[in-house]
Design goal:
By secondary structure, the protein is of the alpha+beta class. Helices cover about 30% and strands about 30% of the residues.
Length: about 180
């Protein structure tokens, strides 16, 4: 199967997507389009089968910032004490019919390239992702580290693990 990764378009049919995670599915079907086309607060990239254009998976990303006090990472000691630009993976999901076929890795690799582009265009110190428990191992395989968060817990939702990948590590992975 030949796969391409591209930005979500209004014409794409999201209704049949099912990852097995109700939150991931609901976001993709109901909110990914609004966030990208109406509010302009995040973009969604989709993995599609080239011939049929069936959606195999997606990743929604946004730009963000973080204060170095939020994450106690030694590499930030050299940075000034004000908000730093960071690339955030807000959601990543694979349709359950296509899981365990490397599609998540292909989407994540595309996100690494986007972080490099962001670094060149406006500055970026790395990638943050709020990983669900069952996704921590996936991100660790790509050198993400669990970030020691100082504060910021949302008590109304299940606690997710903040993971971080530095721009320096991204360069090493891609070279």
């Amino acid at each position: 199967m030949k796969i391409e990764i591209r930005k979500l378009e209004k014409r794409d049919n999201r209704a049949d997507f099912s990852s097995g995670d109700i939150e991931i599915d609901r976001f993709f079907v109901k909110f990914a389009g609004q966030n990208q086309f109406k509010h302009k607060i995040g973009n969604t990239y989709i993995a599609v089968e080239s011939h049929s254009q069936n959606i195999l998976g997606y990743a929604t990303v946004t730009s963000s910032s973080m204060n170095i006090k939020e994450l106690k990472l030694s590499e930030f000691k050299k940075f000034p004490n004000y908000p730093l630009p960071i690339f955030r993976i807000a959601r990543l999901g694979i349709d359950k019919r296509y899981q365990s076929q490397g599609i998540g890795g292909k989407l994540l690799r595309k996100m690494l390239y986007l972080a490099i582009e962001l670094e060149e265009l406006v500055g970026c110190v790395g990638i943050l992702v709020d990983a669900k428990d069952d996704a921590i191992g996936f991100y660790k395989r790509y050198s993400f580290e669990i970030a020691p968060v100082v504060d910021g817990e949302l008590p109304s939702r299940p606690m997710q693990t903040v993971m971080y990948l530095s721009i320096r590590t991204i360069h090493k992975i891609l070279n």
